[in-house]
Design a protein that fits this description.
The complex is a heterodimer.
Chain A (H helix, E strand, L loop, with lengths): L6 H17 L5 H5 L13 H14 L18 H11 L10 H14 L2 H12 L5 E4 L15 E5 L2 E9 L9 E7 L10 E7 L5 E6 L8 E12 L3 E2 L5 H14 L9 H10 L1 E2 L2 E2 L4 H29 L11 H19 L17 H12 L6 H12 L23
Helix pairs in contact in A: 1-4, 4-9, 5-6, 5-7, 8-9, 8-10, 9-10, 10-11
Chain B lengths: L6 H17 L2 H8 L7 H10 L17 H14 L5 H15 L2 H12 L5 E4 L15 E3 L2 E10 L6 E7 L9 E7 L5 E6 L8 E10 L1 E3 L5 H37 L1 E2 L2 E2 L4 H30 L4 H27 L10 H14 L3 H17 L1
Parallel strand pairs in B: 1-4
Antiparallel strand pairs in B: 2-3, 3-7, 4-5, 5-8, 6-7, 9-10
Helix pairs in contact in B: 1-4, 4-7, 5-6, 5-7, 7-8, 7-9, 7-10, 8-9, 9-10, 9-11
The chains are: A alpha+beta, B alpha+beta.
């Protein structure tokens, strides 16, 4: 048991470190190093512009999407090399936020199901940050039950015509392409009538509208489709096979190991170490200590769980299912920590101004944003189902709509 | 990075699991639970023959000389089997104290006897209510004799020797405490068995009256040695707790697959599935924290104090959580004496207190994290 690199890993790390040192946009180091929970913002620059420049530079140096094959813009790196790169890229990795859905989900799906032409045309551009991709899965009436989606795609000659609405599409407003799942046959049970496509987001009939969120920000969008034409050559997988294609996409999302999820623990530790209460520092209060310790061991538990997965990768093995707990644990923890940090501030905890006294309002912001952490990318409940079914081997839910043709499934509760 | 046990260590785990499945079925645990024996003597003898008791004891002192990672994998299996033997008191507490502070003669006298299963050892630290603290040590040592009462002493009624924490000064500092070894067969002690939450691991009260004792380690170094012993035992106990958590989770999962209610397996209800998923989360966090503890223990890393406290807290929470919810998944049957759920419930809650309570270790963790942050 050790934390040392193998000689090859150490050599790779050295190469990566040197390259980052020589090429990273150091002018943003201070801003990026500040702890940030949620979306990153730069004071005087658009994160997408700065991100694109960094991504392009990485592509030129063969560091973009480095686990992809060389012919598609990658480096052909091993999974462990990808983890080492992420560690060495460090805070500059935050600049890749606009590309994460493309790199983590859309790209791998195109790689698995796209034509050779589509792969060569799009993947290198995706890797280089020249094309930003978004994922068009969720709908107003199809969240956790995404297979219940309604957006229709109808075959007209060599084309498909799409009508419907998607929601919670992050980055749709700056994306060039989208990965779209739509219903192509409503007469068969819901999982069997879906097909996957990709489309140009500038296509006529695509309308992107930002959603104002509960925390007051606008990071997600609604996307409306009105008679949008998609060539059949942009279909991914067979007609009616969209569900199994989407599982590939989602599996890739959950495989992203080493991506550190914010837990709020370092911020909370620092806050409690400095907060003066009536009887002294908060961190000297037994009740505070007890909570802090419980959160700290969850946070360290997640860290060492990811180390176990990294070790498996280093040995060329497939990581176990342990990593599936990450978002479930950190999402709830963020919310609990935010609530408690405000509780410690008493009545003043209600204030959201960004001054010293409210610690830049960071916990209030965390409180307002944290509900989304427990919903996006699989709700806590769906994640528990996944652990119960795939890890513990418990039976799936009884699905009353499983064998019912999609157009016979009730759409309203009352 | 290789944050995992080696193939040899995993093989040892498989071997220990197979051995304990055979030699320590629930029936064997119940012999002790029902008061028919103070501990499973046969199992103790076989554990010695397998070399498990001395796995981390150097060869020069009659052990296998393997190491602490090997001891961790065996500890996990002992916890999984709920083994009714004085393993933790003898191996994690007494043997570790000897390894840290024993003279050559003391090691020669006791360690080979531990490895061969001839001697059961324990640590006599607590004196009634309260957590580990120099202030709570009232038993005195003067002129080579001890006077005072220790309770609860784990496995005290079956132990052959005890490492005893005694007061040798009154400055109010850690240096007031010194350690001694007492051969409990030599007289000067009165041992009384105490009833406790988990009868498969006995507890006793030991009264020392002008009892002859030999110093262990330098005078005034007692508290510093004890702190190290407790940290090391915390990691080893955490592995037992991880083993117990996994077993309790498995029992719950198996029952949820077997039991039919409302015409379907109860494991198909989300209320039950989510309870089991949460148990898996706790058990996984505990395992990962314990691995880090194992690394720190086996390399004597400066991170050990923090790693040990984190492993201790995480594993205590996980075992309590899994044992408690295992009963809940079982419903009424889980509350019967006949089902094994309560054995893990008892063990989980007894282990949560053994080296000091959860709040004590939470306190320790925060102190140690602050120290690191300040450095």
């Amino acid at each position: 048991m050790n934390f040392d690199d193998t000689p090859q890993e150490a050599a790779f790390r050295e190469t990566a470190r040197k390259w980052v040192e020589a090429n990273a946009p150091k002018e943003f180091l201070a801003e990026l190093s500040k702890s940030s929970l949620g979306r990153i913002r730069l004071a005087n620059h658009d994160i997408v512009d700065v991100g694109k420049a960094w991504q392009k530079k990485k592509a030129e140096g063969n560091w973009a999407c480095l686990h992809w094959p060389k012919e598609y813009g990658g480096r052909g790196a091993t999974p462990i090399e990808r983890v080492i790169w992420q560690q060495e890229e460090g805070v500059y990795g935050k600049l890749t936020q606009p590309f994460q859905i493309g790199e983590g989900m859309c790209g791998p799906t195109v790689m698995a199901f796209g034509s050779e032409d589509a792969k060569r045309r799009h993947l290198p551009k995706l890797a280089a940050g020249e094309e930003i991709w978004c994922q068009l899965f969720s709908e107003p009436s199809a969240g956790s039950d995404v297979a219940g989606l309604r957006t229709r795609a109808e075959k007209k000659g060599d084309n498909w015509v799409v009508n419907g609405q998607k929601i919670w599409t992050s980055g749709a407003h700056y994306s060039d392409y989208g990965l779209l799942i739509a219903r192509t046959d409503p007469n068969v049970p819901k999982h069997k009538g879906l097909t996957m496509f990709f489309l140009d987001m500038k296509s006529p009939g695509v309308e992107v509208r930002p959603i104002k969120q509960a925390n007051g920000m606008q990071e997600f969008n609604e996307v409306y489709f009105t008679d949008v034409v998609i060539p059949d050559s942009q279909r991914l997988g067979a007609v009616g096979e969209g569900w199994s294609v989407s599982l590939t996409t989602l599996m890739n999302e959950r495989m992203s190991i080493g991506s550190r999820l914010a837990t709020g623990v370092p911020e909370m530790f620092e806050f409690c170490s400095n907060l003066m209460m009536e009887d002294g520092l908060a961190i000297d209060d037994p009740a505070v200590r007890s909570k802090l310790a419980s959160w700290a061991v969850k946070s360290s538990g997640l860290k060492y769980t990811s180390y176990r997965a990294i070790s498996a990768l280093s040995k060329g093995e497939r990581p176990g299912p342990e990593n599936s707990i990450g978002k479930l644990v950190s999402g709830m923890m963020l919310q609990d920590i935010a609530t408690y940090a405000m509780d410690l501030q008493g009545a003043a905890g209600v204030l959201t101004g960004s001054d010293e006294e409210t610690v830049q309002g960071q916990f209030q912001q965390m409180l307002l944003s944290s509900p989304s952490m427990r919903i996006a990318g699989g709700t806590d409940e769906i994640l528990r189902n996944i652990i119960a079914e795939r890890v513990l081997g418990l039976p799936g839910d009884i699905r009353v709509d499983k064998d019912v043709p999609y157009n016979k499934i009730p759409t309203k509760g009352r | 990075m290789n944050f995992d046990f080696s193939d040899d260590q995993k093989q040892l785990r498989d071997q220990a699991r197979k051995f304990l499945t055979e030699k320590c079925p629930p029936k064997a645990v119940r012999m002790v639970l029902d008061g028919k024996a103070p501990y499973d003597k046969e199992l103790w003898k076989s554990l010695a023959e397998m070399g498990f008791l001395g796995v981390a004891i150097p060869e020069d002192f009659g052990g296998a000389g393997a190491g602490h990672l090997e001891l961790c994998v065996i500890a996990e299996e002992m916890g999984r089997a709920n083994a009714p033997v004085p393993f933790s008191s003898t191996v994690y507490l007494a043997a570790e104290a000897l390894l840290i502070a024993g003279s050559d003669a003391q090691k020669k006298k006791w360690l080979p006897a531990i490895a061969s299963g001839e001697a059961i050892g324990t640590l006599a630290l607590f004196e009634g209510k309260g957590n580990p603290s120099p202030k709570n040590v009232k038993l005195t040592a003067a002129n080579g004799v001890l006077n005072g009462v220790k309770k609860p002493v784990p496995d005290g009624a079956i132990a052959d020797f005890a490492v005893v924490a005694a007061r040798t000064g009154s400055s109010g500092r850690d240096g007031d405490i010194s350690l001694f070894i007492v051969d409990l067969k030599d007289g000067g002690v009165e041992v009384k068995s105490l009833t406790n939450l988990d009868p498969t691991r006995g507890q006793a009260e030991i009264t020392f009256r002008d009892c002859k004792a030999e110093p262990l380690g330098a005078a005034g170094e007692g508290w510093s040695i004890l702190t190290q012993v407790l940290d090391r035992a915390a990691v080893l106990c955490a592995f037992e707790q991880v083993g117990g958590s996994d077993r309790a989770l498995e029992m719950g999962r198996d029952y949820a697959l077997d039991r039919i209610a409302f015409g379907r397996q109860i494991g198909s209800f989300q209320a039950v599935k989510h309870m089991l998923a949460d148990m898996y989360v706790s058990a996984t966090l505990a395992r990962s924290n314990s691995y880090y503890g194992a690394w720190a223990l086996s390399t004597n890393a400066s991170e050990l104090p923090e790693a040990a406290a984190a492993a201790r807290i995480s594993a205590t929470q996980a075992f309590q959580h899994c044992a408690k919810n295992n009963i809940q998944v079982h419903g009424g049957m889980g509350f019967t004496w006949e089902f094994d759920c309560h054995m893990y419930y008892r063990r989980a809650n007894a282990m949560a207190l053994g080296l000091g309570s959860l709040s004590y270790w939470e306190d320790q963790l925060i102190d140690r994290m602050r120290k690191k942050n300040a450095a």
